[in-house]
Amino acid sequence: MLKHIVMIRFIDYSEEEKSQLILEVNSKLNNLRLWISEILRLETGINISDREVAFDFILTINFQDKNSLEIYLNHPEHLKVIYFLNSLKIETAVVDYYI
After folding, report:
1. Between the chain's N and C termini, which has fewer beta carbons within 10 Å?
2. Helical H runs in the chain?
3. Rounded distance, CA 76 to CA 91, Å?
4. 2-98 domain in CATH 3.30.70.20?
């Protein structure tokens, strides 16, 4: 099994704007399980820490294998979310590993 983790930090947004964007991103990502059968488990989380180094949002997805991850990464519905995210001022970190 493979775990895909993405952390997002929203840059230069007010707290109100950031909260709204997080809700929108959360909804878009959670809806991906309706479209992409390779997703075995999808979990999102909103940061509660006030530490400066903390990211604002995390996505964790389990896949059967690397091929399933590749299908997800290239899926048209996932690419729509990526297009939306690329329109925002964000910083991301990604880790993929076998469990």
Report:
1. C
2. 15-35, 66-74, 76-86
3. 22
4. no
Residues in the chain: 99
Residue 8, classified by CB atoms within 10 Å of its CB into exposed (0-12), middle (13-18) or buried (19+), is: buried
Terminal Cα-to-Cα distance of the chain (whole angstroms):
6
Where b means 16+ CB within 10 Å and e means fewer, 25-35 reads beeebeebeee
Give the pTM: 0.94
The answer to whether the CB of 33 falls within 8 A of the CB of 27 is no
30-81 tens-digit pLDDT: 999 999 999 999 999 999 999 999 999 999 999 999 999 999 999 999 999 9
Q: Which residues does 1 contact at the CB level (< 8 Å), separation at least 6?
A: 40, 62, 63, 64, 65, 98, 99
Orientation of helix 15-35 relative to helix 76-86, angle to 10°: 170
What phi and psi, each to the nearest 5 degrees, are found at residue 9?
-120, 125
